Amino acid sequence: MSTSYTWEALKFPTCNVCGSEFLILDLLIDHCKEQHKNMPYVCEHCGRADKYLSSFKRHQFMHSGERPLVCEVCGDAFGQKHTLKNHMKRHAEEPHYCEECKNYFKSEEEFERHKPIHAKEKVVV
């Protein structure tokens, strides 16, 4: 069985500033450092170039999986402030939070109807 590939199907590392494509990531990193000197921070994982250190550091959380920002209400963790902020809006909009399944409910009635589901799950036969 032979497999054929077309150039169009391949994904090449692409410069997020000018759209240039490269065969390997190292060439993209070199390109960003040389051609886009106003974008001195280049990600070693994907080649994304940033002008500011703060946005570069935020981008790095995506690769590291680190989530240093923790929700004080439910304990969920996030890598970026805006994601935590959006999450906190949900707590405010839907204040009834189920610790068991991490669902939110707008009304107390809805939340009370939901609770027995977890009681049934805990019954051992």
TrEMBL record:
Keyword Cell cycle on entry: no
The cross-references to Gene3D superfamilies, in alphabetical order and at most eight, read: Classic Zinc Finger
Give the matching Pfam families: zf-C2H2_4
Assigned keywords, A-Z: Metal-binding, Nucleus, Repeat, Zinc, Zinc-finger
- Where's the C2H2-type domain? 41-68, 69-96, 96-123
Query: What GO molecular function annotation could you give as one example from this UniProt entry?
Result: RNA polymerase II cis-regulatory region sequence-specific DNA binding
Per the record, the similarity remark reads: Belongs to the snail C2H2-type zinc-finger protein family.
The name this protein carries in UniProt is: C2H2-type domain-containing protein
